[in-house]
Structure formats: C-alpha cells, structure tokens
Amino acid sequence: MGKVLLVLLSVLYPALVYFLIDRVQPGWFLSLMFGLLLWRAIASRQPAERWTLVAATLLLAVLSLILPAEQSMKLYPVLMSLAMLLLFGSSLIKGPTLVERIARLKEPDLPPEGVRYTRQVTRVWTVFFAANATIAMATVLSNDDQLWALYNGLISYLLVGMLMLGELLVRRWVREKQG
Asked: Where, by residue number, does the polypeptide cross the bilayer (predicted)?
C-alpha cells in the first residue's frame, strides 16, 4: 500500500500543485516534496538510487533557498528527471548499464550485440532525461502555472510512454533483423 501511495503522490504531484496553488502555502508543497524524495530514498533497495535521491533532496534544499517559494515548490519533476539522468548516465561510466541490468533479468546470457544495444538505449534515456529536466526547469522559470502543469503533469508522461513504446518496437525490429 505504501509503495502505491508513493507512486500515486509522485505522479499526481503536478496536478496537486496546479489545483491547490492558490489554497495552500508553498511551504506545504516543499514539505511534501522533501517527504516524497526521502520516502523514495528510504524505500529504495538500490544503493545508487538511494544516494541519487538523497542528492536530489539536498539539491532541493539548496534551490529552495535560492528560488522564490512559488518556483521551488514546482521542482519535483525537475529533480526526478535529474535523478533518472544520474542513474542512467552514471551507468554509462561504470557499467553494466542500467538497461543491460534490466535486460539480464529476462535474458541472463545477453550476447555482445545485446550489450551494445542496451548501451545505446541507455544513452537515449540519458539524453531524454537531460532534455526533460531542462524543459521542466524552463516551465518552472516561466512562472506559467498552466504550462508547468501541462508539461510536467501530462506531456512528459506521454513522452516517456512514447519512448518506451518506440524502444520496444525498435527492439523487436532489431531482433527480427538479426534472425
């Protein structure tokens, strides 16, 4: 139940901010963000993910001192994209890549071409999360609540889904091509 609530709150965070922005003090959203980040860190079983989330929490603390509260409370999607960027990107430096580790759960004896493919997919996700974090931050700095909610509460999720579907289709095509 706790994990479901965590995912639900994380996914719905942009909608909560958008609909409650005029009714709730920014400090409440910052508290919720700190709580979500720390909860995710504690719930994580992966040390790399845990430390990434702790780093995101510290970054939030620093940014909340620099930015106005109305902007700070909208940083959660930015921090999640940065955390994912760090997880995927760091695995490119110190392998195996995150995508390779996931692939080996299904196919433990991944052939060399599979390792190369998963490395490319990891690069794509790394670039995606860098771009997503940049766009999410631009929506924060725009001070346009509707734009922020639209991108971070809908468009970014659609883009993630499209990338997942696209990768699945490419993977099938590559496998068919290899025979």
From this structure: 27-43, 50-69, 75-93, 124-142, 148-170
Q: How far apart are CA 167 and CA 170, in angstroms?
A: 5
d(CA 24, CA 18): 11
Where along the chain do its domains lie? Answer: 2-178
pLDDT at 39: 84
Record the pTM: 0.86
In sequence order, what are the residues at sequence separation of 6 or more whose Cβ sits closer than 8 angstroms to the Cβ of residue 71? 140, 141, 143
Cα dihedral 149, 70, 34, 50, rounded to 10, equals: 60
